[in-house]
Amino acid sequence: MDVSKRMNEILGKILKRREGALALRMGDVKEVLLLRNKMACRRAARGIDVTCVPAFAWKRRRFRLRLEPGREPNPHIVIAGMSGFGKSSLFKHIVADFADARVPCIIFDAHNEHETVVRALGGTVYDARYTGINLMELDGATVGERIAELTGMFREVYSLGYIQATKLSQCLWYAYRKAGATDRQASSLERKLTIGSLLNELGVFVRNARSIGERNTLLHLHDRLSLLNSGAFSSSVEMHGLDSGVHSFSLAGMKSREAQVIYIGELLRRIYQRMHSNSKEQGLRMCIAIDEAQFLTGSSDASSGLIRSLIEEGRKYGVCVMVVTHAASGLSRQIVANASTLVAFYAREPSEASYVAKLIAGNDQQRAYAVMERMRRLRQNEAIVISCNSRDPLLVATPDIAGLNERLKNLSPGDGQPHGTDAALLSDTRKPTPYDKAVKEHGVGEVDALLKKGALSKFSVSPDGKDEMWLMAKNGAVSIEHEVCVRKIHELLERSEIRNYVTGGKGPDIVALCNDGKIAVEYETGRKKLKESAAMIESRRKEYARVVIFANSKAYRFYKNYFECSNVMVFDIRDVHNSAATLHEICRGALVPQV
Fold first, then answer.
1. Fold (CATH) for 67-126+238-401
2. Which of 57, 222, 246, 430 could form a Cys-Cys staple with 123, CB 3.0–4.6 A?
3. How confident is the model at residue 543 (pLDDT cuts 50, 70, 90)?
């Protein structure tokens, strides 16, 4: 073989290996904990002996720390420490590293604090209140398997008893039968099934209860599951869309911790199933990042079991799990034990500091004592890092938030990611923003460039006969039309002296107050299916004195023909001013709608 050809092949393999490696820029190493010999005096029979004894000491070191999770025995990372000492800043830097390496990253954001960075990296933010997982979908499983999965998950999350779990399993079977399942081995349904369908079956069981005790048991179960009857569990994310880019699921809008745990658990279950369809030993394919994990996982939660499974098996399929927590001692021990890399920031709680120090030091008490003493003196943006390939604990100055902002500004415009003013513009337009205001603050060039790229959505409205242009960062979960029109309806009702408030996703879009109760006000874009609209309107009629629906010109006739009745009124959004006058009369009790 030609020598030059052989050299080119070798060089190509080296370059390919370097390109495939993901390096996480953890920061600058300041000190390393090393074993050294210490002189000690010992009094003996004939005098004093001076001997060398082993001891641990921190030594100054100066070098840049880069960890390559793909070359660790497993790629998983645990970041622990007290709030305010740099966990989130390091987390965002690591997410940026994954984005630079083109490794897909899925983030579960408990407090919605990573939305700006995700958008700046060209990622997608999903509001869990509106976009999530339809729990009742079979997703490749049989009816019997899905019933067993749902019963087990609800039993674990809600601590259900045997009788409640048995009744729940029966209700699930009846719901699937009505959706077209002929037997428990069926793997497809004729009709779409949602949590609302399950609640209807529970209602039948309540009415047919044989005793007061059984009825109360079923009512208790119905009340707990009714919290899941929302947009988070009625529509499904396209799972194949998560195979590239950065995706963040914002969970703060879900007020129930149980709903958050079920949401994460179901999404992780589907990721886990898709993972097994990948070929093994093909490098790092995906990162799953869970922030504030102590609130979302525990030793007995369903989502915690799935995280353990992902950590135990993820290495073979190229899945990295990164967990950020205030308290590592609150995590399942399997999660911590199977993570190659541990990053420990300052911990004030003595038991937590002792636990983390033992994790870093192993069974060596003297080493653990040295680690704990150094942890007590950690400053902001300082952490002790250890991994399987770097077994000596390293004191690292981790990157701060200022460095992250500078890094985002320097993103190349050609890499498909926002940069500089683009990131600031996307951050400012998380909620609908007037076009003129955005142009005044950021310039017409930047605004039009992002509109052309599709990163911004625009919507025109003429509430007072005057055209208005609105902008909002692209969001797969929320429509700019819906957000702008709800705001305009709220403002018009205020000007008409109708007391009202925007609910922010829980219940109707707007609740207006009248003399004989509350009015549910909804804006509809026409994207809902007939059954979804009917179920929504029926639930509003049960809880509110009247229901008012505003719809755009395309959906107006549909809602008018199908749903308008004595206590359901449908208005065209183009005639919103006359509608407000009618609503004002209704709220005063001077007008009773007749259809």
1. Rossmann fold (3.40.50)
2. 246
3. confident
Q: Which residue has the higher pLDDT, 16 or 384?
A: 384
Q: What's the rounded Cα separation, in Å, for the pair 312 and 359?
A: 18
CA 269 from chain centre, in angstroms, equals: 14
- What's the CA gap between 426 and 431, in Å, rounded? 10
| pLDDT for 344 beyond 90 | yes
124-127 and 246-250 beta bridge pairing: parallel
Q: Tell me the per-residue pLDDT of 48-73, one tens digit each, with 9 for 90 and over.
A: 666 666 678 888 888 888 888 888 88
Joined together, the tokens standing for residue 11 give 């060089």
**For tokens 């911004």, what's the residue?**
456
CATH 1.10.10.10 occupies which residues in the chain? 420-473
Q: Which residue has the higher pLDDT, 359 or 430?
A: 359
- Kindly tell me the burial class for residue 554, based on how many C-beta atoms sit within 10 Å of its own C-beta (0-12, 13-18, 19 or more): exposed
- Helices 257-275 and 302-317: angle between axes, nearest 10 degrees: 30
Amino acid at site 435: Y
Q: Where in the sequence of the chain do the CATH 3.40.1350.10 domains occur?
A: 480-587
Tokens found for residue 319 = 């899945």
Phi and psi based region of residue 443 (left: phi greater than 0; alpha: psi -120 to 50; beta: remaining): left
The winner for highest mean pLDDT among 348-352, 418-422, 478-482, 527-531 is 348-352
Confidence category of residue 506, pLDDT binned at 50, 70, 90: low
Q: Return all residues near 349 (Cβ < 8 A) that are at least 6 apart.
A: 327
Which CATH code, of 2.130.10.10, 2.30.30.30, 1.10.10.10, 1.10.238.10, is assigned to 420-473?
A: 1.10.10.10
Count Cβ atoms below 10 Å from residue 157 Cβ, excluding itself.
Answer: 19
- How much is the pLDDT for 114? 86
Amino acid at 333: R
Q: Residue 334 gets which letter from DSSP?
A: H
Residues 6+ apart with CB under 8 A from 196: 229, 234, 535
480-587: CATH class: alpha beta
Please, where in the chain does CATH 3.40.50.300 lie? 67-126+238-401
pTM, 2 dp: 0.66
Q: How far apart are the first and last CA of the chain?
A: 90
Residue 370's closest CA among 379, 361, 383? Answer: 361
Per-residue tokens: 255: 């007020």
pLDDT at 345 over 90: yes
Residue type, 454: G
Token look-up 């390496």 returns 101
